[in-house]
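batch_manifest entry 22 of 60
target: HTH cro/C1-type domain-containing protein
source organism: Gemella haemolysans M341
requested by: lab member K.T.
priority: normal
notes from requester: please return tokens only, no post-processing; we will run our own comparison against the previous entry in this batch. if the run fails, retry once and flag.
--- input ---
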Amino acid sequence: MKIIINKIAVGQRIRQIRINGGYTYEKFGDFFGASRGNIQAWEYGKALPNKERLVNISKIAGITVNELLYGSIDEFLENNIEVLLMNSKYPYTSIFESYELKEACLIYIDNINSINIGKISINDISSIEKAFNSVLESIISEVSEEYSKLRNKIVHNKEVAEKCIKKYTSYFVNFQLAIMMDSQDISTDNKEFKKNKKVTSPFLYLEYLLKLSSSDDIETKLLYFPCLKMLNEFLRREMENHFLTIKTNLVVFQLNKLTTVEVSSEDNLYSYISKSHEIQDTTIVLKENKYDIKGFKGITGIFIENEDTLYYLAHYPCIEDVPLNTEAQYFILNYDNSYFISKITEKPDCKYLAPILGKME
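--- output ---
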């Protein structure tokens, strides 16, 4: 590994050593057989002393040669962070876009030194490199895990993702052009994109993005990680805004009773939601129980009056009790498979809450 040495910083340290000792240029040069011109060249960062002179200067100052050359771990990383990266298993500069490698490495080294697991100092460059590689491995692992989560969110919300790409076209155009400037990728897709310099179809661009991001290649993941993060942020905003636009029309309630009665076709569902706040009791009366809603421990409901639609979340003790054979259009199971979301509506085509609750094809 070819280490970068900041000659100006070394020169400043040599100058400080000379001044602290009260030496003139000539007197200081006498210690090493160096002329005034040599000393000035060192102090102004135009040249470095040879190895023997570096050792002697360090002895005068009571420091090590590494301390004279590199100053501190912080300074060493500042000058050599890219050198360390290029010498690692993952020589991809795109990682700088998402992570502050120097700061992460300093924190890691401070933590190691604070618990006395083999002190890391500027005098052991190999230990600093080892610490850097440990940090890098941790970051790559974190990126891979987060990358999969981000991609899955996009895959499960493709319609909203397309809307976001259309809405924020300029971001994705600039992102893609930036990638192509740094990349040797001459695929047909990229040629066409570079020619038109625009996202002609949100659907096609999303498919293109998902195709690229499905790669197991670490460099590709690092390259597209910022884009997936931003698209997920756009998704979050879009869903949040969607919820805010409809929440004033929602009636949220807790259920502990469901009954079935025959009602006329003119009636709407809202008339069958009765609430008693004093006893915190709510009863839903359904026109027919074709959804086979029974055996539940509790239900939370959301009623949208202007859509005449009832969404409900039923808590079942175990997966075997969940009526998956119903005609429900929307449902989601949580980590212990105990929750079931469905829809009861007089308008079966309603998809108002699909982006929020999730849609099962």
